[in-house]
Amino acid sequence: MYDYDVIILGGGLAYVGAELLWKAGLKTAIVEREQAHLGGVCLHEGCIPTKLYLFEARKLFELKNSPLISVKDISLNLKNLKEKKQKLTKTLRDQIEKLLKGVDFIYGYGELVEPHVVEVEGRRISGRYIILNTGKSYPQEPNGNDLLELEELPDSLKLAGDDPILLEFACIYALMGVSIEAYFEEKSLEFMHPSIKTRLLKSLKDLGVLFKPMPDTPPEAVYWLKKRVPNSQCIRLDLARDEKGHILVDRSYETSLRDHYAVGDINGIVELAHASRLQSFSVAQKLIKGKGFFTPPYKIPYVLYTQPLSYAKVGLTRKELEEKKVEFSERSVSLRAFAVGSIYHTEEGMAFLYFDKKGFLLGGELLSRDAGEIISLLTTSLFSELNLDMLSRLCLPHPTLAESLFLRLL
Predict the structure, then answer these.
(1) 156-195, pLDDT tens digit by residue?
(2) 231 within 8 A of 266, measured Cβ to Cβ
(3) CATH number 3.50.50.60 is the correct assignment for the domain at 144-224
(4) What global pTM score does this model have?
(5) Which CATH number applies to 4-138+228-297?
(6) What CATH number labels 309-407?
(7) Residues 14 and 263 sit within 8 Å (Cβ to Cβ)
(8) Which of 9, 8, 10 is nearest to 18 (CA)?
(9) By C-alpha distance, which of 223, 220, 219 is closest to 141?
């Protein structure tokens, strides 16, 4: 007899699956190391706080640099912004607990010590099904988490690493007026269309970001933004793993041990919060209805929230198509050709869409203001298997950035 039907180890976005599970009548528990971290990296050190900082930094930058608005002595209070972040994350964390009123929250460091058994600081609980959602962490300190704890704007910052998230932090503080030295490995952007990569880096340099090669001796007083590594030390079973430590799963997200699943960053399929949410939803459906679903990684959109131009992609990129030797045609769009590009100061934006020989969308990538909003349209188009003819007949609001993607397809 098990204590629970389902135990979720890790309180990140797998809570979406927990909601479905307890509402379906399955006794469910979430184990999270501390209440203050419920919601995971996304809520506390990733998606949510960084976008809050970017939004406020962009407002400051646009007010300071608008030729039509005269503002004197405008500044940003970083301590107040940090407090706003803390209030926001607490509000969202409280909402999660309220949403999951039928789920047991067990706070403390948890480890999977035996099949179906999780130990939380000496207390053992058992579950018929185990869902691992332990995520990833920065491998080196100080890092991006520390950048979100600053209370005063420094004159300068040094950032180093191979994670593209470095560019988001560079933008945040450059927009705030901080001098940025970035020791960034540009090969981390090789997945981008060459024209987009060049334009993106130029836009960052125009902000004042100074890119430098990493010296043999690491610079002093640097914040490290290296790609995160799996939090797998709490998984004490001999589950199949890849060379980086990710837990290997099948198309139902089940590990090499039956009834033990792994979702989110820990499985290494797609290291994005919305992928974790989708995977937990799939596992919940399997446990409730007997069948889940698998979403191919290429159908999950990716966004790099740089400013003033952000990058987004979905489907296969030009580089991936060439590597797979897939026959395709490329359609390009320059936002300079549309009035909306000038209205939103995104004239340097561009997009590339890729189609197969029958005209069906294979993928797309773009550089634009609010690219994350626009990519949703391409994601829907990809899932709906629309072809050139259907896309060209879409009637979208005018004038919008999304509209510009399809006006020049024919």
Answers:
(1) 999 999 999 999 999 999 999 999 999 998 899 999 999 9
(2) yes
(3) yes
(4) 0.95
(5) 3.50.50.60
(6) 3.30.390.30
(7) yes
(8) 8
(9) 223
